[in-house]
Amino acid sequence: MFFVREAWRSLQRNAVPSFAAMASVVVTMLVLGVFIPIIQATTGAANEVRSKVLVDVYLKTNAKDADVERVRQVLAEDTPHVGNVTFVSKADAYAEEKKRNPEAYELLGSNPLPDTFRVTPDKPENVQALRDALAPLTASGARTTTDPAIEEVRNRREETDKILSATRVVKLTVGVLAVLLVLASVLLIANTIRLSLFARRREVEVMKLVGATDWFIRWPFIIEGILVGAMGGIMAVLLLGVGKVALLDPLAADFALLSSPETINFALLIAVILGASVGVAALGSGLSLRRFLRV
Amino acid sequence: MIEFRDVTKAYPGTDVGLEGATFNVRRGEFVFLVGSTGSGKSTIMRLLIKEREPTSGEIRVAGRNLADLKHKQVPYYRRNLGVVFQDFKLLPNRTVYDNVAYALSATGASRKEIRAKVPDILRLTGLATKLHNYPDQLSGGEQQRVSVARAFVNHPPLLLADEPTGNLDPKTSIGIMQLLYRINRTGTTVVVATHDAQLVNRARRRVIELHAGRIVRDEATGLYAPTEQSTKEFGAMIKPPTDEFQAIMDSTFPADVPPRES
Ligand SMILES: Nc1ncnc2c1ncn2[C@@H]1O[C@H](COP(=O)(O)OP(=O)(O)O)[C@@H](O)[C@H]1O
Ligand SMILES: [Mg+2]
């Protein structure tokens, strides 16, 4: 209690730098609080796309039912890395596409679409191996097919790669931003504590003379730093809470991403933010005490 | 109580703070360290507080070699010392009571202990009516009394005072010195560094004189200034104190209080 009282006293006297440090903690924690769920949601989305990675096996338009059955057999028994296989017949594909784009298909008249097997690999990363198995690369770089009825084998790798690299960029940017902000917060708290040490150098001197232990001298400063950090963290949590209630919750109803199960739950997020605030503050205080308090 | 054996303190650069100092102070003694500014008085004090380490030589306090004290033990060692400085070292934003209480709580004293001890020591030092004043509302003499109260609140066996009257007028100085004599009579060893010749001459206590970091004189009942003649003869020669001064001395050093043996 003595320490907390001393820390509070010092905080009041050091109002301006304390406020600056607190504001910095608020901004840092807001960024973390907004981006942790966003990153998690996009990572979740990317994983979902990854899990939907498909290899489309297009058959020749003149393929007979026997050819279809043979290819199905090949897929089921002779091909490695096959997970799930769905057959989309010419007619099904036509109906599907016509629904999506009625005018265009009205003009076409006949059905130009082939029979298709949609094959999911057993694991997303095996998609290329699966494609190679069905349509091996020749020495010249062109692809042949393992079955004469297969016209072409395509995967959607490019799409998924784009999504994945986009989330990587977001993660990296946010990561760098977060590191910089955390650094700024640590330094601002360190600065607050340094000023506080300077303002209270007489007290420190007197404490040393009367035989206060090192930790007795340090605690008020550490608590002061932690108070600044915790107040910043609480402020950020309150702002995030308001933001969540005012903006996110109404949207969540029609935006599946926000309520996706991978998104961190709010209570845990609060705990992470408060923990991070206190950690940042303790680090900042410790830094200054190490440098400027020779006990 | 204190043993200095060939202690030298060389400060970085060319200054020598203390050179080859050897002396002993017995338990319960009252000692003046005298000498002009820069002669090394404060250096001795700082070495005793273990704020500085000697370059060579050995310092023992209560039989313990200070060099053997580990960093973590230093605070506990200091709790057995009272220290008083020329500039009082009071905290300006705390009341008289809080200044003393603060020092006590820094040593881990309980609230109960603080409530019991602080008013007592402040009464003893004549500050009973100033408990809730801030240092800037006190005279220099009163501020120094607070600082003495803070130093003595734990009844340490050793009290060090570095120029305790350096900022005070002669009349106030006498009051502070009287306080220190009273503390000494409770059995506490007192070491006072000063260059106030009048006080030293009047006190007739042990004097250790320093000059440029060396001990040049150590007399059992000395005067401030060195002399070839015996102390007795010298005493007869010095001009008698003025009436005003004598009156103050008589009122502040009542002859009927016998020194307590320890
Ligand atoms: N921290 C220091 N750094 C360098 N020299 C010092 C320091 N403290 C004292 N000295 C030198 O040591 C000598 C003795 O100083 P000090 O013990 O303070 O004397 P006194 O208290 O008798 O005036 C002086 O020459 C002074 O300049
Ligand atoms: Mg000095």
From TrEMBL, chain A:
Protein's membrane topology: Multi-pass membrane protein
Keyword field: Cell cycle, Cell division, Cell membrane, Membrane, Transmembrane, Transmembrane helix
Domain ABC3 transporter permease C-terminal per the UniProt entry, residue ranges: 176-294
Stretches that traverse the bilayer: 20-39, 172-198, 219-243, 263-289
Domain of life: Bacteria
Similarity-based family: Belongs to the ABC-4 integral membrane protein family. FtsX subfamily.
Chief localisation class: membrane
Segments forming domain FtsX extracellular: 55-135
Matching InterPro entries: ABC3_permease_C (IPR003838), FtsX (IPR004513), FtsX_ECD (IPR040690), FtsX_firmicutes-type (IPR058204)
Protein name: Cell division protein FtsX
Signal peptide start and end residues: none
Compartment(s): Cell membrane
Automatic annotation (TrEMBL), chain B:
Pfam families cross-referenced by the UniProt entry: ABC_tran
Topology within the bilayer: Peripheral membrane protein
Record's function text: Part of the ABC transporter FtsEX involved in cellular division.
Domain ABC transporter residues, every copy: 2-237
A molecular function GO annotation: ATP binding
Quaternary structure and interacting proteins, as annotated: Homodimer. Forms a membrane-associated complex with FtsX.
SMART domains in alphabetical order: AAA
InterPro entries attached to this UniProt entry: AAA+_ATPase, ABC_transporter-like_ATP-bd, ABC_transporter-like_CS, ABC_transpr_LolD-like, Cell_div_FtsE, P-loop_NTPase
SUPFAM superfamilies with a match to the protein in the record: P-loop containing nucleoside triphosphate hydrolases
Subcellular location: Cell membrane
Main location (coarse class): membrane
A single BP term in Gene Ontology: cell division
Name this protein carries in UniProt: Cell division ATP-binding protein FtsE
Organism, scientific name: Svornostia abyssi
Entry similarity comment: Belongs to the ABC transporter superfamily.
UniProtKB keywords: ATP-binding, Cell cycle, Cell division, Cell membrane, Membrane, Nucleotide-binding
